[in-house]
Amino acid sequence: MTVAGCTAAPDPAGPPNVPNVTVRAALDGQWTWQRQAAPLELGVTHTQDSLDPEEPAEARRRGSDILADNSAVWQNHHLMGFGTLNPEPSSGEYDWESLDKRMQLTEDTGGRTVLTLCCAPDWMKGGEPGNTGWSQLEENPRPEHFGDFAALAALATQRYPQIERVLVWNELKGFYSQEDNRWDYESYTDLYNQVYSAVKAVRPEVQVGGPYVVLSSLDPGTPDSSDVSGAWGVADRRALDVVDHWLQNNIGADFLAVDASTSTRQETTPVRPDVGAQKYADLTTWLRQRTDLPIWWAEFYPNVPAGEKGGPSSQASAAATLAAVAAYAEAGAAAALLWGPQGHSLEFSALWTDSTEPDGGQPTPLTRAWQWLVPRLAEGDVEIGRKETQPLLAFRDTEGQALIVSLTGADVAVAAAVEPIPAWGISINSTSS
């Protein structure tokens, strides 16, 4: 077997080279391979800053080029907030300018469009018409305004014919009952059903999904634990109850959406990215046991092990993200959306550096690997490999190319007299016999 074109994942400062002989040695030995269970469509959710027109032109161009180059099957925007302004400041008075710009970004970069139907104008939450209190963004609309929100959702879906999917609300924001120590899934499902009916009435071909609940995990023995557990912790029963209620009481759905991080509510982080990523596989399996609906991970946050620094420029975060993608592919998830593809302050991966800065829009450690995976996983022909004796993960396609990921912060020695794979190293290799 010969190996060519092997480098570590891109880094703004330039990646180190991984010698071909090292990669050949890594691919030898005992590997377990599993073909992905179903096509997996990767995408992004644009947030507060994301290639907006006022950003420095060259930085924006660089970022746009990355986005357009196999970085997303789907691009997701919010109806209000996370980069878009209030679309209906007063009842019947509309302002679509900011959402128009975001929709144009997706058109310009060749993506398919998702709209998250969140959040709600202030007057639907008891505020004054004409005012927008951004500190109240995460409040839910009042029940007497569920119909008004559904009408706004339908209007937005009509305005943008490129919308193919809609997510109803976001993480059940505002729907938690402290008094009852549980989510008010009855009220959320009422809102969902009204939005579903309104959207389908005007555009029946648009696919609608929910409940978009955070599948939190807990340390073992914590109150509210469920019977779904793993080395990553225990799933929070209250979140699973949301899924069960919604499945039993929605009037229709085209897909099921959830999200999660890999750390627990007690801030216990996984000892290795693949241990944390197993949560995504286990919960995807749990969901698939309850429904035939496609499973969408609307957000996912793979935490790095204790002692490692996460963030858009972090090799550890890039490796953790790829471990999560492997888990989705193995378990049969239909889609996964990366939150915030533009560099940000969160301790998770992005696809380009902050393009509000003149030197921004540069690739990150995740970029090249993510772009390699997007079209291949969407086709459904990728195999996921795990080396039995070392912390190495791999993806390979039907044409003999492979993506290899180190899942440890230490160098991995793969053979005598051969340079090791560097900590959190990511390599893309073309192979032929």
Q: What structural class results from the helix and strand content?
A: alpha/beta
- How far is it from the N-terminal to the C-terminal residue, by CA? 4 Å
Order of helices and strands: EHEEHEHEHEEEHEEEEHEHEHEHEEEE
Sketch the major β-sheet.
8 strands, parallel, barrel
Rg, Cα atoms, Å: 22 Å
Q: How would you state the average pLDDT, rounded?
A: 94
The fraction of residues in strands falls at 15-25%
- Oligomeric category: single chain
The number of helical runs is 9
Key features of this structure:
9 helices, six-stranded antiparallel β-sheet, 433 residues, eight-stranded parallel barrel, alpha/beta, disordered N terminus, globular
Short summary of the structure?
This protein has 9 helices and 19 strands. By secondary structure, it is α/β, with parallel strands linked by helices.
Could you characterize the architecture of this molecule?
There is one protein chain. By secondary structure, the chain is of the alpha/beta class. It has nine helices and 19 strands. The strands form four sheets. Strands 3-4-5-6-9-13-14-15 form an eight-stranded parallel beta barrel, surrounded by six helices. Helix 7 runs parallel beside helix 8. The longest helix is centred in the middle third of the chain and has 18 residues. The protein is globular.
What layout of secondary structure does this protein have?
Layout: E1 2-8, H1 20-27, E2 31-35, E3 41-45, H2 57-68, E4 74-78, H3 97-108, E5 112-117, H4 146-159, E6 163-168, E7 176-177, E8 182-183, H5 185-202, E9 207-214, E10 217-218, E11 225-230, E12 233-236, H6 237-249, E13 255-261, H7 273-288, E14 295-301, H8 315-331, E15 335-339, H9 367-379, E16 383-387, E17 392-396, E18 401-406, E19 426-432
Parallel strand pairs: 3-4, 3-15, 4-5, 5-6, 6-9, 9-13, 13-14, 14-15
Antiparallel strand pairs: 1-19, 2-16, 7-8, 10-12, 11-12, 16-17, 17-18, 18-19
